[in-house]
Write a structure and sequence with these properties.
This protein is of the alpha+beta class. The chain contains 3 helices and 4 strands, in the order βββααβα.
């Protein structure tokens, strides 16, 4: 079973970073968008697995928009990429 989470990719000086508004504290880095996407998928799946193992609720994929003003009020980052990233849900949830 899979679920899609909204993910924001930000271009830094020397790399990319990513986060999902629905999964606070879970983020990733990479040298390219492709590497960052792969790292973010791995980070989300690990987070979801550990959350399920702890008996805590899996975050709902509810975000449909991103308020860039909220996390980049000075508009310092000039390049963003936003997508729905499909991740595998833990078997504990999928069952």
């Amino acid at each position: 079973m899979t679920r899609e989470y909204l993910v924001v990719y930000e271009k830094g000086d020397k790399n990319w970073s990513a986060f999902s508004p629905d999964v606070p504290g879970c983020g990733s880095l990479g040298d390219s968008v492709e590497e960052t996407r792969s790292n973010m998928r791995e980070a989300l799946e690990l987070y979801l697995n550990e959350t399920a193992k702890a008996g805590e609720p899996i975050p709902v994929a509810a975000a449909t928009t991103v308020d860039f003003e909220e996390f980049d009020p000075g508009h310092e980052t000039k390049q963003y990429f936003v997508e729905w990233l499909r991740v595998s849900l833990p078997e504990l949830v999928a069952a």
